[in-house]
Amino acid sequence: MHAPMRRAHESPAEVDLSAINLNLLVALDALLREAHVTRAAARVGLTQSAMSHALAQLRELLGDALLIRGQGGMVLTPRAQQLVAPLKRGLAELRRALRDEPPFEPATATRRFTLATRDFFGSVLLPGALELLGREAPGVDLSVLHVDSTTFSSHLETGEVDLAIIVAPSPSGPGLRQQKLLTEDFVCVVREDHPTVRRKLDLDTYLKLTHVLISPKGGGVGAVDLALARQGLPPRRIAVRVPYFLIAPLVVSRSDHVLTAPRRLIDAFSKAYALKVFPPPIALPPFDILQVWHERFDGDPAHQWLRELVARAVNMGSENTRKLRGVRRAPAS
């Protein structure tokens, strides 16, 4: 039984898209192309009865017979004729959207990415990243935020932050993905004209010195303190705590304190601040630096490109620090 026809003076009813099964649109496209229930069913791999049922649903949904009997078989109603072209275009566009991820073209892209990190990791990453952006993606901008360990997981999930650059291990969270960017170790540094540290830094001297500790939260202990405790050695005196990595070398260059810090940080500042660099007199484990993102963006071409650019930028930073290691260093004790 056909659905009731709409009178000419009646306004078209609003179609509830949430009530439409995509399979019905595929069936409608086949019916409009074939104007024949059996052939339309074969076209999309349905049984004739299933296609007849789909036609009945479409008639009810659209308030039009769509196909009626004519002298040479079934013919399209005027309403059905109006649907042929837009339905064909719409399904073709939908197929393209589902088949192919929109390409990301760095050279012509205009967008902003947001990174959450600390100042040390930013100093390792940003020079190379900016160089690569200038060459490959001049329309792409970066925002760098201080990483907040209490909120960055949720910000990664919402997309407010694209990547977090942090020290391993990554805080656990649903849907978080990570990649190791580099492994870092420690060195010790004092000012070049330090009155008591000259050509070597032995453990006794190290423990007698006053120390600078980089403490982003203003408290706690560092890797050195944990290592001293493990070896049953007396604690060091922490004379100065600073919240930022980049302040610490400047503090040491104008005092008699010693700083134990990531090698790449010291490599970047040892020459400018006239610092002497030594291997630590105690064994300190290296640590990994990670980039972390949410699985929602695993397959996003722009995000994949960003992660690859960050990895390349870190490698560029590592190459540059290796070149700087020709600065004067004291021999190991």
Automatic annotation (TrEMBL):
Residues 20-77 form the HTH lysR-type domain. Gene3D superfamilies: Periplasmic binding protein-like II (3.40.190.10), Winged helix-like DNA-binding domain superfamily/Winged helix DNA-binding domain (1.10.10.10). Pfam families: HTH_1 (PF00126), LysR_substrate (PF03466). Keywords: DNA-binding, Transcription, Transcription regulation. One of its GO terms (molecular function) is DNA binding. It comes from the Bacteria. PROSITE patterns: HTH_LYSR. Belongs to the LysR transcriptional regulatory family. This is LysR family transcriptional regulator.
